[in-house]
Model the fold of this input.
Amino acid sequence: MRGLAVAAAAAALVVVGAAGASPQQSQAQHVTLIGDSVADGIAGDNDAIAILEQGIDLDLELAPCRRVDGDSCPYNGVRPPTLVDLAKSLGSKLGPNVVVAVGYNDFEDQYAQNIQSALATLKAQGVKHVWWLTLRAARHPALNMNQDIEDAAAAHPDLMSVIDWNVYSRSHPDWFQSDGLHLLGAGSEAMATLIHKTLLSDGVAAAPVRVTTSALPVGQRGHPYSTRLRADAGVVPYRWSLLERAPAGIHLEANGLVTGKPRAKPGRYAFDVRVRDSSGYSATRKLTLRVRA
Done:
């Protein structure tokens, strides 16, 4: 916003705040989450999905009984593809970012080698980075398997990072079903939150959209008026709307352009605006328009 601007004559048109993309605006990056029956709790929880998909293009590839490599265990008479097989079948559709939450059905003595096979396969399909969740250590083998995850990340620091679900969930038995592993609603939302926080911190998920316009230029009653609202972060394009009426004669277009001829009496008029980004998230702000005679 470039400060105040007032039309000097009825035919004059003032435009304040030129349109243009902020450096912090971004297009959503593609993220594929590959998981077994534990992470599958996210798929059944709309709130968890809403948390996780904010600022990313999300693909959920979740299936009970999935293993990392070898053969998955049977579920309802069907063996889902392993992580390795799924990665080969999806190929470039995996995108550059993959989150892995697989291991509860795997064999402890094969897990380290299976992680290496998975990383090699994912890299061959064009994946640039893998985030691997540790296993909740409700059973002893998970401790050794979590060490395998840590060791793999240390050996491949440019390719793999660890998301420590075990530590994050340690003090929250209320997040889990009676087996201490499978998620209740709160656990699904907690796992989604942890993954999203990590992706946000690592610059993969776009930061939440926010309204950056803090003040409106003064308008003159009966004179043409125009200014553009600005937003930052989120996923472009944005769509703007009013939550309540603006002063008479003033209109807000979906692209953020505020136009019209103020017809209201001189004074100050407050109203709320909302911006929604293309990932479906929104922000609001109360703005004040001063109308002069």
